[in-house]
Amino acid sequence: MHVHHAHHDGERAVALIDDAGEPIPVVSAFLRHLAARDCSPHTQLAYAYDLLHFFRFLARHDLAYHDVTPPHTLALLDDLRAVPSRRPAQRLGLAACVIDGGQPAPRLAAATVNRIFAAVWALSWSSARRCTRARRCSSSWTSTPSW
After folding, report:
1. What are the residue ranges of helices labelled H in 8-139?
2. CA distances (Å), 122 to each of 34, 62, 98, 101, in order?
3. 80 Cβ contact list (under 8 Å, min separation 6)
């Protein structure tokens, strides 16, 4: 699973690609929504990378997007707090670390985890609104998710 971004006719296209090489439809629709709202290409890319964490979690736990419940979000939080940060960061104090490849590595910052949760909520809210307007959704997605 990865984020794909390319330039087409002067515009940036961003997609979250699953392990089969296909764009994930719910994420694609959400990213198109962001583009239609004239969000910066950097914002679209940031949302795609944040949602990548969420969809990797779903894959590791063999969950479908629409099957996520509040207890799963607690597991997501635990999972994200164990993810090593891949980017260098300036830290003014001690940092909590995880073991990555036998070496200590700083874990994702709390602000990063919070931003990922905000992206997941925004995706859920956007998906529920589209679903309600189209009246093509299961009963569990007829309102904004409670988590």
Report:
1. 25-36, 41-60, 70-81, 110-134
2. 10, 22, 28, 33
3. 53, 57, 108, 113, 116
- Tell me the per-residue pLDDT of 28-39, one tens digit each, with 9 for 90 and over: 999 998 988 998
Amino acid at 30: F
Note the Cα 89 to chain centre separation in Å: 21
pTM of the model: 0.77
Tell me which residue of 79, 135, 84, 130 sits closest to 105, measured CA to CA. Answer: 84
Going by C-alpha positions, the residue among 117, 116, 141, 139 that lies closest to residue 130 is 141
**Domain residues of the chain, as ranges?**
2-85+97-141
Which residues contact residue 120 at a Cβ distance below 8 angstroms, ignoring those fewer than 6 apart? 50, 51, 54, 73, 76
Q: Give the Cα-Cα-Cα angle 133, 122, 56 (nearest 5 degrees).
A: 115
